[in-house]
Amino acid sequence: MTVYNILILYLTVINLIGFAVMGIDKKKAVKRLWRIPESTLFIIAIIGGSIGSIIGMRVFHHKTRHWYFVLGMPFILIVQLSLAVLIYRIIG
Question: Which of 64, 68, 75, 80 lies most in the core, judged by the most C-beta atoms within 10 Å?
Answer without folding.
Answer: 80
